[in-house]
């Protein structure tokens, strides 16, 4: 078994900077359940088992239902998500897959119509943060063990 790189110890200052962004997001007023949906959905797209495991557990601890988490990958086909959540999930997907296609005006405008400016900024930064964490966890081979 490969030994994983403990990037958090080796690059402690970079880890502190990432945690600074997490601290900002925790104090941004962004709904905690929505924050966990963002983190879980981006992690699903990126294939980060470590992060999916962590964020589904975190989501359930704050009251998210197992059923909604089971259906998160197919949220467009579910009636369990609000219009605001759908707008945020659409933006999360577009940002996570930005190399394949840009964030369309429709996705941007829909998100803007459902979010305050403060929320919109926090959602963008939440997607940036989780995509960064996913890349770190996958590349450093963080494990579920």
How is this structure best described in words?
The structure is a single chain. By secondary structure, the protein is mostly helical. It has a single domain (11-139), classed as AhpD-like (Up-down Bundle), CATH 1.20.1290. The chain has eight helices and no strands. The N and C termini lie close together (12 Å).
In short:
This protein is an all-alpha fold and 145 residues long.
The CATH homologous superfamily name equals: AhpD-like
The ordered H/E elements are HHHHHHHH
Helix content: 55-70%
Number of strands: 0
Mean residue pLDDT: 94
Radius of gyration: 15 Å
Q: Determine the structural class based on helices, strands and strand pairing.
A: mainly alpha
Enter the CATH topology name: AhpD-like
Oligomer: single chain
Number of helices: 8
Q: What topology does this entry show?
A:
Blueprint: H1 7-10, H2 12-26, H3 32-46, H4 49-61, H5 66-70, H6 83-96, H7 105-114, H8 117-139
Helix pairs in contact: 2-8, 3-4, 3-6, 3-8, 6-7, 6-8
Which keywords apply here?
145 residues, mainly alpha, AhpD-like
């Amino acid at each position: 078994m490969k030994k994983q790189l403990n990037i958090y110890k080796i690059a402690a200052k970079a880890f502190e900077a990432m945690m600074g962004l997490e601290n900002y997001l925790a104090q941004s007023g962004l709904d905690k359940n929505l924050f966990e949906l963002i983190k879980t959905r981006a992690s699903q797209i990126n294939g980060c088992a470590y992060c999916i495991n962590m964020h589904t557990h975190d989501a359930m601890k704050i009251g998210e239902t197992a059923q909604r988490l089971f259906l998160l990958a197919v949220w467009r086909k579910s009636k369990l998500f609000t219009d605001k959540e759908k707008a945020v999930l659409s933006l999360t997907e577009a940002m996570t897959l930005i190399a394949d296609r840009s964030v369309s005006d429709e996705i941007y405008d829909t998100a803007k119509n459902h979010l305050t400016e403060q929320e919109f900024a926090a959602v963008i930064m939440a997607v940036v943060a989780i995509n960064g964490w996913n890349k770190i966890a996958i590349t450093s081979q963080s494990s579920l063990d």
